[in-house]
Design brief:
The structure is a single chain. This protein is α/β, with parallel strands linked by helices and 504 residues long. It is built from 15 helices and 19 strands. The strands form 4 sheets. A 6-stranded antiparallel β-barrel has the order 11-12-17-16-15-18. Helix 6 runs antiparallel to helix 12, helix 8 crosses helix 10 and helix 9 packs across helix 10.
Length: 504
């Protein structure tokens, strides 16, 4: 996957000097055993490192500052094995800039009822040590995830793993760069937004290059003929390429141009260190086609993408791809295109002009060329396929002016019916809790028509991600009702207007 890093997570254990050196040595050994056990579970996507047993305010502060300064530290897991007076943590936690998870566990799973004495009780005090810690986290108004249960429990491990995936997405955004080839589609509101606010809030930068800069990369002078030959061979070996596009076919030159688009765009992204991009069919001066297969394949390599200049969705798709890295299912740019409103069941047909990622393809992928019907350019080459049935979700990042909101809708994808005349990749799904509620809720929440669509990323990961980012989440799922959702939106308007003052 392009530009994918693997940050480590620091495991920090809290205690105090009252217990003496012997018990503290045992606490440290137990903490190391917990870390080793979690690592051996193979359920955590990032390396977990036992960093320190902390017993004084200075130790705590120094570790928090060290975490801030270490670019490879993605976040921290905190656990209070014993009682750790939480006033000791105020200075360090106030300085901490990395996300953290509070693990409420204890070393032993079962109590040795017949052998319990006061030494055992003094050593195993997480039951109230973590409550003391939780109070100060709440008092400081710190966003965090709390996971409860024994560290050997697979559900606990999976919830830590979901948070780690969110951390990885957040870590990937820090210092990330996204490029817009041209501006956004004219007169469209939701694809626009405040890029300065986004960089302040999220840590990534979005900047525009004129389409001429890309045209220069795609030109005959900029692309080696042998590289085009090799990529066309790869297409013919990988996909079901239409006969007219294959070597010797009457439209093979159009496949070669698509290969030039891919090679030029990939070179531009690699040289600029970009993790995603946008384009728009309204700004293609100098290009023969709207990039179709090139964009699809670049998404398949891990780049984020947003159509019509939608930089927020490009960044979100990239973050979701990072969160879902190495999980089955895939993530794509998506659009709710049109509806099936039969009384027997309502469904959404999701697609776009061209740009759906092959990571969500079911079965053989075809390479075809067809008219686009918009934009006034040559017929673009594209990958055509169906997305599979299964649990999935759509997510949208929107700019409300005074804040950002992440809208999530859980869906059930179904096998698409035959679509012989629709020459684009597509997915079909049924919304939760039902079509009418979900669509109304999405519209009330201001969700965009572009989304990140995923079979691998879960709502838990995205909610963890929103907590780390400090943004609002609207979660539309099987339990959603419109009266409650509308009340939640009204409450959120007040909360997010006042939230900065709540930290005092």
């Amino acid at each position: 996957m392009a530009h994918l890093s693997t940050p480590e997570i620091w495991f920090v254990c809290g205690s105090q000097h009252l217990y003496g050196p012997g018990p503290l040595q045992q606490v440290a050994a137990n903490a190391q055993a917990v870390v080793d056990g979690l690592a051996k579970s193979k359920r955590l996507p990032l390396p977990l490192k036992f960093k320190a047993l902390l017993t004084t305010p200075d130790e705590i502060t120094n570790v928090m500052l060290a975490a801030n300064a270490d670019a490879n530290c993605g976040g921290l897991v905190l656990w209070m094995h014993t009682f750790s007076p939480s006033k000791m943590w105020i200075r360090g936690l106030t300085a901490l800039k990395k996300p953290f998870l509070h693990l409420h566990t204890q070393f032993n799973r079962d109590l040795p009822w017949g052998a319990i004495d006061m030494d055992f009780m003094n050593l195993n005090q997480a039951a109230h040590g973590d409550r003391e810690a939780g109070f100060i986290h709440t008092r400081l108004r710190l966003g965090r995830k709390v996971v409860v249960g024994h560290w050997s429990d697979t559900e606990v491990q999976d919830r830590i793993g979901a948070w780690m995936r969110a951390v990885r997405g957040w870590h990937d955004w820090q210092g990330a760069r996204f490029v817009r080839f041209g501006d956004n589609m004219r007169q469209v509101a939701v694809t626009d937004g405040d890029k300065v606010s986004a960089e302040m809030k999220f840590g990534f930068a979005v900047n525009t290059h004129g389409i001429g800069d890309l045209v220069a990369k795609v030109s005959e002078a900029g692309i080696d003929k042998k590289a085009v030959d090799a990529l066309c061979d790869e297409y013919e070996q990988t996909y079901a390429v239409a006969k007219e596009l294959r070597t010797g076919g009457k439209r093979h030159e159009e496949l070669r141009y698509s290969a030039r688009l891919e090679l030029g765009m990939r070179a531009f992204l690699e040289e600029g260190g970009y993790k995603g991009f946008t384009d728009t069919f309204e700004d293609l001066h100098g290009l023969r086609q709207l990039p179709g297969m090139a964009t699809q394949r670049l998404m398949g390599m891990g780049y984020g993408f947003g159509g019509e200049g939608d930089w927020k969705t490009a960044a979100l798709v990239r973050a979701m791809k990072v969160m879902g890295a190495d999980l089955p299912g895939g993530t794509s740019f998506m659009e709710d295109y049109t509806y099936h409103l039969s009384p027997k069941g309502h469904q959404v047909l999701g697609a776009h002009m061209l740009e759906i990622c092959p990571s969500i393809a079911a079965g053989k992928v075809a390479v075809e060329v067809h008219p686009l019907g918009i934009g006034g350019k040559e017929d673009p080459v594209r990958l055509v396929f169906n997305a599979p049935a299964g649990p999935a979700l759509n997510a949208s990042l929107v700019d409300l002016g005074n804040r950002f909101r992440l809208v999530i809708n859980e869906v059930a994808a179904v096998k698409p019916p035959a679509l012989p005349k629709l020459p684009v990749a597509r997915a079909v799904w049924e919304c939760k809790p039902d079509f009418k509620t979900a669509c109304a809720a999405w519209i009330y929440a201001g969700g965009a028509h572009h989304t990140g669509y995923s079979y691998s990323v879960t709502s838990e990961m995205l909610e963890d991600f929103a907590v780390i980012a400090g943004i609002e989440t609207v979660h539309i799922n099987a339990d959603t009702t419109l009266p409650q959702l509308k009340q939640d939106l009204r409450n959120n308007e007040v909360y997010y207007h006042l939230a900065s003052g709540f930290r005092a």
